[in-house]
Amino acid sequence: MGRSLDDIIAARLPDEQVAIEAHRDASKQHVEGLCELRQIAGKAQADIASALNITQPSVSKIEKQTDMHLSTLRNYVEAIGGELELTVKLPQRPALRIHHLGDSSPRRRHG
Known about the structure:
By secondary structure, the protein is mainly α. The protein has helices spanning about 5-10, 15-25, 35-40, 45-50, 55-65, 70-80; strands at about 85-90, 95-100. About 50% of the residues lie in helices and about 5% in strands. A two-stranded antiparallel sheet has the order 1-2. The termini are far apart.
């Protein structure tokens, strides 16, 4: 019988265990797409379809899209139990979070 990954890590030196855990945590911060995000959330396409009141093939189509409306992405993320945050990174500026998009957003007056 094979050993689990946790057993293999436990057999390493403490410094190596820390490095492995740090790498594992960093890897969890990146996903390849919506399908992987859904799997991390422990949801099936049928769960998402039910939450969005669409068909399972429609969920599959959303997951394969390379370009979509932010509202579609927001609805999908909320259906898996998450919250969408939009962050803009400009050169030599701290990251900026956009809270509202579209006509209903609060506008600053210049002048």
